[in-house]
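Problem: given the chain below (212 residues), write out its structure.
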Amino acid sequence: MGTVERREREKLELRRRILDAARALFAREGYDAVSMRRIADAVEYTPAALYSHFTDKQSLIDEMCRKDFAAFSAKFAEAAGLADPVERIRFAGRKYVEFAVTHPNHYRVMFMTPVPHTKRHSADHAMPDDPSQNGYLLLRDAVSEGIGQGRFRDGLDDAELLSQTLWAGVHGVAALEVTMCNDPWFGWAPLSRRVELMIDSQLRGLLKGGAA
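Solution.
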């Protein structure tokens, strides 16, 4: 490996360390409470050197969002091959929780840490309009297809409302697992059973005849 290639690899590795440190701090202390100097201290780097990688906290959160939401959306890639929209919804719910427990700091920052809208979604970081790259659009499209097929109970024809309700259910399971899985006061049932029961109970309540 040549000098240029080695330096580029070292640069990428340092950016990864910076993002990992910032993500952990944002998850633990909140976005507004964390300064660039605080992040620099966490990676044992000078603030001036940190600014050579990220011009400000906005550029850092931009790159973090791009990377984290891309990794999140990749979890749902297999869903596109499922012809049945209800099975797509079920698959998406499982993958959602799987991402949360595999990447808890990513999940905390993405869905559990207050970040001003203009910070999380700046002008150069708009959420993609492609369902294969946007988990929420994938869910909403599956719900819309199910509505079109007459799968949901009469009167349940608002795809946004149904999608957000389904999201809330799996988010609840994911958030409890991420924040309280080691709480000694609770004898948690196996995560896989909690996920399946949440998805199944929601679909039984929403589909015609409870046909989950």
